[in-house]
Amino acid sequence: MKRVLLITVTAIIFLLLTGCINGDEGQLEPIEDTGDIETLISTNQQLVQQIESYKDENTSLQEQVKELEEENRSLKDNILTYRQELIEKDNLREEELVTRDYLDELAKEIFQAMNDRDHYFLEGIVAENIQVNANAETLDMHDENGRLYYTFHYISLDSVNYIRQTSFNYDFDEEVFESEYSLTTGDSKDYTFDGGIKLTFIYEDEWRLSSIVR
């Protein structure tokens, strides 16, 4: 009796296990569709490519920014240099005008001193290469070797109606100033151009006349 019962229980358990296995096999679905995975992989690859592209663009933009910053610095330096040049030119121009006005007045005093035979004034204003010859009433100019190369006779302003500076040139580096004057003679009805006089001044301890020629 016990043996029959054991066989029966074993058979029932077998049938139950067999039914459960068969039931589970009916509910499982094989994984055969791989399209979703491939799509995810492809999308991931595209994102990686976009990231690399963005990195390249970012690197290029950073290089462009560096170039623009360098160009901007160079431009600022050029602007500062240009401004400094303008300031220097303005200063030189102002110095030139001041020097021109001063030497224009000095030239007129020289003309007047020759007219007045003021040898003392002339001796105080000429450079070392010019000798004031009071007896001959001349300004004798000598070269570097001491040789006489030009003699300028005193001018008389009795018949001169007008003296005008026609041109000038200032060499800042050499500190040499050249100016030319025209003299007009005659009465109120008949004016005559009496030629020109070129004066050269050099700066030593002060501005001095180093040459005067017609």
From TrEMBL:
Family annotation (PROSITE patterns): PROKAR_LIPOPROTEIN
Keyword Coiled coil carried by entry: yes
Coiled-coil regions listed in the entry: 37-85
Keywords: Coiled coil
Highest taxon listed in the record's lineage: Bacteria
Protein name (Swiss-Prot/TrEMBL): Uncharacterized protein
Species this chain originates from: Evansella alkalicola
